[in-house]
């Protein structure tokens, strides 16, 4: 796997800025729209489960599961941005991820934050 498969985040062309901070230097919050989130649930692939089980015996990174989690987080983030944009926001502040097991059949990933309208100061 190349380095591009291990990461995520936004492209420079994104319409909605997403940050993990309370504010953005050089900008002021004109309007708080409210909480937004993007949610996805992914089941585990049988092949990756078997591979992960074998790998756990000898140690090391579970690359198949890492790739799946990156894809899942990116999908949750895309849904977060789509919801913020649909509500008229141009930014999401305090973005976080929440990851939980979903009924022993998959992993739920939720990206959430506060949708706002920012203006340059």
Automatic annotation (TrEMBL):
InterPro entries to which the protein is assigned, alphabetical: UPF0145_dom_sf, UPF0145_YbjQ-like
Listed Pfam families: YbjQ_1
Top-level division of the source organism's lineage: Bacteria
UniProt family annotation: Belongs to the UPF0145 family.
Annotated protein name in UniProt: UPF0145 protein DWB77_03503
Species, as recorded: Streptomyces hundungensis
